[in-house]
Amino acid sequence: MRIFQYPASAEEVKRRLSATVSRQPAIEKAARGIIAGVREGGDTAVVEFTRQFDHASLTAERFRVPPAEMRRAWQKMHSKVQCAIRMSAVRIKKFHTPQKPTGYIIKELPIGRLEYRISPISSVGIYVPGGMAAYPSSLLMTAIPALLAGVGHIVITTPPDAKGNVNPVVLGTAHFLGLREVYRIGGAQAIAALAFGTKTIPRVDKVVGPGNAYVATAKRLLYGIIDIDMIAGPSEILIIADDSAPLSYIVADLLSQAEHDPLAVPILIYVGSLNERAFCGELKRQIADSPRSAIIRRAIDGQGIVVVVRSLAQAVELANMKAPEHLEVMVRRPEEIIPRLKNAGAIFVGQFTPETVGDYVAGPNHVLPTMGTARFFSPLSVMAFMKATSILRFTREGIKKIGPAAICLAEEEGFPAHANAVRIRLGE
Prior knowledge:
The protein is an alpha/beta fold. It has 3 domains: 25-228, Nitrogenase molybdenum iron protein domain (Rossmann fold, 3-Layer(aba) Sandwich), CATH 3.40.50; 233-375, Nitrogenase molybdenum iron protein domain (Rossmann fold, 3-Layer(aba) Sandwich); 395-428, no CATH class. Helices cover 44% and strands 17% of the residues. The protein has 16 helices and 14 strands. It has helices at residues 10-18, 25-41, 43-54, 67-76, 79-96, 136-149, 168-176, 187-196, 213-222, 247-258, 276-289, 293-303, 312-322, 355-360, 396-412, 416-423; strands spanning 2-5, 104-108, 112-120, 123-127, 153-157, 182-183, 206-208, 227-228, 236-241, 265-271, 305-309, 326-330, 346-349, 386-394. The strands form 3 sheets. The protein has a 6-stranded parallel beta sheet with strand order 1-11-10-9-12-13. β4, α6 and β5 (153-157) form a beta-alpha-beta unit. The longest helix is centred in the first third of the chain and has 18 residues, at 79-96. The radius of gyration is 25 Å and the shape is globular. The N and C termini lie far apart (76 Å).
């Protein structure tokens, strides 16, 4: 990891912190082709793309996983994993339940009544990364808020392995949650199928969940046809630390995100004087011990930086500039800066709150904004699965009271038919 002194290297530091993953034209072109293919070819195209990208020979009849297979997957799951899933689910539900919004009614007797009604989105597709790996945590984090919101139709898609099988941990988790509609398709073709619908796969109103660059690009391209949770990029972690934090903790947490992806972004902002030799030694030792060392090295070499600052104020300035997905604070007096940290997907406070607990069992959602979008995006929540409708009802007395103002504004904007729709009710 390159080490910079701040503010001596301010220009370079700010350039690196503001950098985002550039769109790759080849991926976007491929995603557009897949989307067009599924829109035109339906199930036939999905079968072909699944063979091409997942190397799985499936027919449309095999897309849907039988509920009995899901039940068996749960029954065969190790009890230790079942207990961890139950704990995670309980904590996610506990944290998310208070998020459910309520509408309100304004009564203006005798002229009328106004209502702001909140209701769940009718149908949602959840994308769960799969294939060789299992991501039950992603399913828990996306499905539980949707269930709490009251979504009536939840569809899960997840990529198969080369034999056409879906990871049993994902299937078992779906069964545990009471979800019965799982399709063994992945990639951009799954997002397109959910957006347009096919003979086998139902169309949905919103798609959520993480995925690779093709999945993320397809979601972005299809936004407007469907709603999406957010435009996701590679995982990020920014740690603010001082000499009260053990270097082993700092390094372990940086690597916990670096192992996700060669494009992951691990950043350390160190307040005070960093023992660079000790830090680099710990970094090398932990990388060497990791089974995912090749991925970690690419992330560290490509995006990893250390910025040594003189004060907590400088650390706050840089953290807010980056607006990271995950922000850890391991300093002596974290309470001094937490209120000033405005831009982050999630903030982890203290030496004993590693980002890992947020990924799995803490309770808050781990689907978080990346690439600086924490400046305006929020974590996935129950509210993401709900929508609002305004309901207006006026009496004859009510239209007489507010109608003249509506006529005035309509005429001012040059819409005489608008004005007439009110005027005719006033008998003018």
